[in-house]
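INTERNAL AUDIT FORM
Audit reference: QA-55
Scope: verify that the stored structure record matches its stored sequence.
Auditor: D.O.
Record contents follow.
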Amino acid sequence: MNTRESTAPWWQDAVFYQIYPRSFRDSNGDGVGDLRGIIEQLDYLNDGKNNTRSLGIDALWISPFFRSPMRDCGYDISDYKDVDPLFGTIDDARELISACHARGIRVIIDLVLNHTSDQHPWFQASASDPDGDKGDWYLWAPRRPNNWIAMLELKSAWWWDERRQAYYLATFSREQPEVNWRNPAVREAMYDVVRFWLEMGVDGFRLDVINWFIKDDRLRSNPWHFKAVPDMFQKHIYDRNRPETLDICRELREISDKYSNTPDDDKVLVGEVFTDDADIAASYHGNGNDALHMAFNFEFLWQKWDARAFHDAIQHWYAALPEGAWPNFTLSNHDQPRHYSRYMPAFGTRDYRQRIALARARVAAAMLLTVRGTPFLYYGEEIGMQNVPLKRHEIQDPLGQRLSFLTRDKGRAPMQWDAGATAGFCPEDAPPWLPVRPAGTQANVEAQLDDPDSLLGWYRTLIRLRRQEPALRQGQLQMLCDGSKQVLGWRRHMPDETGTRDIVVLLNFANRTTPLPDGQVDTGTVLAGTHRDTGEAAHPAELLPHEVLILGQ
């Protein structure tokens, strides 16, 4: 594995790339992506040789590939220690981890520990024998005790089981019963899963809905709340964010720390804290170094295209984090619409909307990759993948099958490798599991790979600049422009062997020339930009429409 000059933990310096394995690359012609498909495309992500044609990412987050009935696309796990045949074999998982490490790519995998599949042997035993050793491994009640909602079914989260003659809790879908994290035997079984994959060589975990693990011991109903999304008109004080959950985070941290010897060997824990409240997400860091290494901050995923809104979200996240905690940022993931589509203007001609969307995508990429914190990319954002329109019969997502306008599948379409009928994701005689964009689109790897002016070329430029400049990874951040005139800007400052290194980042969110505040920016050398040549001296008084300007000082 590649070594680093930085003394910071590797996950603070890294650029993460999320892969939804169903949709990345199909290696066997069945129309579904798989682990071997990821292996075959690793050189595109990072070949370990600093090849300028590689994207240059440092770490993968891979969504679930465990054995599953696939009622929720793999988030309903029936065996945590095996790979579903849809994705390959356990030997493919070993090979993927090894191949990534050989290229300097770390691997974190998605663990779903809040619930299992109803086909998991644990649940089958719990339902069949209330007095058996697994009778208390799930949450059971003789009648529906409260008003908790199943997120994917939009009805009561309590489901009747004929065998046990009781209701069990499942707050996603009826096929995903919740385990009883108050039971010490359940905890130990889940911790054994964690150890299994750490022994396999993974570098950490993305922990699905970690703030849902512990439920109120009295199973009280949630009070009414006016917000529909994501709260389903309930204030989730009894089924989420219970104070005991932080104890689980600390126990998981103790386990991961036992497999961590140096900052270059840290096993990282990244929590999905499902909330739109950054303060709640920040609390899962514990005291900054005793719980999760990072908790996802989702504020970027729900922001409108507005420089001031992003400024406020950044400042809010920094202020919410406890001392010693490390921030992270992301613009898209498998549960949300793609940001390229979110930031596309609603009105105008098709060409106008596409032109503005591409310009905004460049600004968004520069923001994500230069702000202080670990960036998480979502597969295909580097080529400008958009949401894919779906007909009702094409939707696989259980939520979308109930309410098509809420489907998560529109952001999960196959990776676009070329302009062919199946986008190079799978053979053209094997229909992909979800439709691809119309053939001929320029939003594909082949069309952009050798074009330095493409969106892919821009991502590669930013990622390499981040790697070359410690100030962009570890430097302090001083805000220069607060977004009030649709210009966002900051200075990254870090001492080096010659004194200090300052890098100024300026982002124009507006489709108009915008003046900069007087006295905020001194002359610097262009390190990267959308409108000026690298290496030229600049003392900007204004930014052109949607201009990105990164200066070294």
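Auditor finding: record pair retrieved intact. The chain is about 25% helix and 20% strand.
Action required: none
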